[in-house]
Amino acid sequence: MPWEDQGVEMESADSSEELSYVMNSPILSNVEENSGIFSNSSNFAIDNSDHAHSSLINYSVYNCYFYGQIANVIKASMCWSMFGVIVTFFTESNHGISLVRLVFNLSIILSSPFASILAGRTNIKTILSITTVIRTIIWSIMVPLFWYYLDYKCGYKRCFFFNFLCFMFIDGLQVSFSNIVDIDCGGFDSLSLQYDVPLSYTTRYRLNTVHQIVFDLSFFVVSLPVAYSIYRYSLAYPQNETLAFALGMPIIFLLLGLISLSFYLFGLPNSPCQEYRNEITIIRSYSFKLVLLQRLRDIFEGFCITIQNHTISSRLLFLTIETAFDDSLISLIIPSIAIHNGWFQYSNLIKPNLIAVFLISLGKLGGVIGMYFVQRRGINVNSISRSYLKLSQFTLLSMLSILLLPASVKLIDWLGLKGWVCVYIFGLVFFLFFLFNSLPKVWLSTLLQNAVSDYQVRHKIYYFVSLFITLIDALVIIGLNYSIPLPSTRGYFLKMLYYAAGFYSVYGILQIFIGPFMLY
Questions:
Q1: pTM of the model
Q2: How many angstroms from the chain centroid is the CA of residue 271?
Q3: Taking Cα atoms as reference points, which of 167, 38, 26, 32 lies closest to residue 91?
Q4: Is residue 94 within 8 Å of residue 144, measured between CB atoms?
Q5: What is the CATH number of the domain that holds 239?
Q6: Is residue 364 one of the residues assigned to a domain?
Q7: Together in a domain, 109 and 219
Q8: Does the structure show a pLDDT above 90 at 440?
Q9: Least confident of 53-62, 182-191, 195-204, 251-260
Q10: Is the pLDDT of residue 483 over 90?
């Protein structure tokens, strides 16, 4: 059947069938199904070979890929914990965080269709190497260099801010491409396919678990010591404190980037297996524009399926709010607490950076414990009466934890507390929130996956879901940021806490009372 769209015409039914083969080939389908936040399976796993399981760890290709990803995930945890304060420092604006996240997320959204197609046409070694090099250059060379000459030396703050936004847009492009082949998005499956080495479910699960543990522990064993070292250095050499803060994270980023790059370049083979090369030859024979247009159609079909299915759309809405609010806490609210709290006298943002990393680390610890509890006890998402009662209890506890944020400020002011004891109080609040919030996130994600699994074209739904969550994530952050007038100091901090508590309380009440009617 002919297929026409924007001047692109298929000449025969045979060519349409060939396009269908290309779009559903193992390479592209692997990219699509693992491009979102729900990837938990593979079409290429080989589970029936005990020999494969016992010898897999000896394959240098897996070792090098895994160690490169470990260095990358450590780098990610450090960036995540320091992002809010670092961006505020570079942009010198309380609205800088929301603008940067908007540009960054839009870059991911716009480039994702291109990234998934190019990932199906390109060697995984090439993708990992190029994205690692470009990200390392941006964060370790270009951003510090432009800041030093344009802002620090010449005082061209607006010029630097514009360049910084451009760098973040380019960085978002690299994240979009690298996400396709990262461990948590099915990277092991892509590796197994390209180099024709066996991959057992047990081994994949074990390595993915180690990867997640390293990410969680990195907040304590890497991010916190780095932030504390920068703080101690600024006390010992106050004349260099500004440069120390501007260069501290970029230097660690550079070291970790070089470690990842060395494993990718010297450990991964240059040439994939013959079967993969044959698949690539077929895929490359088709026009990139043609395949891109078909991919955009897939996204639109995923959108149509989602809005027409009440269950999927409701579950996606609740999960998106949970995800966006968590990210707002990390990227916006905790950095704002660290900067505008009034508990310390600041001459720079070095101590606020340490406070932010400390609070995020405690919150992450609560999340890890909560996930451990969920995995140990298990949840039956199909039992409305029992599982939803448990969900409601945890949602209520999460809501009460968030309400403790403004209440804690009142308590601190009433008792006249100052210094680190105030930080410890807020650390306890974030620990409790992420502890209780673990179950609702897992529960909603599982519900959505169960609803989508009934569709043969579920990869189209997942593709739309990942883009939708990325967009709403940026809009929630910018909405919280711009809903409050430009601050002077502490007033901004207090208003943001009230807005955040009110936002999540409304969501929690809706989930508790109308959730059973929308989610099932």
A1: 0.81
A2: 30
A3: 167
A4: no
A5: 1.20.1250
A6: yes
A7: yes
A8: no
A9: 53-62
A10: no
Angle formed at CA 24 by CA 19 and CA 30, multiple of 5 degrees? 140
Q: Which two tokens stand for residue 50?
A: 């005990």
* Cα–Cα nearest to 349, from 424, 248, 422, 254: 248
Q: Is 86:348 a contact under the CB 8 Å cutoff?
A: no
Question: For the chain, how many residues are written?
Answer: 520
Q: Same structural domain for residues 224 and 310? A: no
Domains in the chain, number: 2
Q: Are residues 238 and 306 part of one domain?
A: no
Give domain status of residue 213, yes or no. Answer: yes
List the structure tokens of 218.
């990195």
Contact between 116 and 180 under an 8 Å Cβ cutoff? The reply is yes
330 lies in the same domain as 433? yes
Count Cα neighbours of 313 within 13 Å in the Cβ-side half-sphere.
9
Assign 3-class secondary structure to 420-438.
Answer: HHHHHHHHHHHHHHHHHHH
Q: CB neighbours of 310 closer than 8 A, spacing ≥ 6? A: 518
Q: Are residues 393 and 339 in the same domain?
A: yes
Q: Which amino acid is at 21?
A: Y
Lowest mean pLDDT among 199-213, 405-419, 495-509: 199-213
Phi, psi of 9 (to 5 degrees): -125, 135
Given 222, 246, 274, the domain boundary residue is 274
Same domain, 319 and 239: no
- Residue with structure tokens 């870059």? 107
In a shared domain, residues 397 and 424: yes
pLDDT of residue 174: 92
* Token digits of residue 320: 């998106």
The residues pairing with 324 across neighbouring beta strands, listed in sequence order, are none
Domain boundary residue, one of 245, 274, 303: 274
Residues spanned by the domain of 385? 286-520
pLDDT at 32: 43
Q: Is residue 25 part of a domain?
A: no
What are phi and psi for residue 4, nearest 5 degrees? -125, 140
With 0-12 CB in 10 A as exposed, 13-18 as middle and 19+ as buried, what is 397? middle
Do 375 and 253 belong to one domain?
Answer: no
The radius of gyration of the chain from alpha carbons, rounded to an integer in Å, stands at: 24
What pLDDT, on a 0 to 100 scale, did the predictor assign at position 391? 75
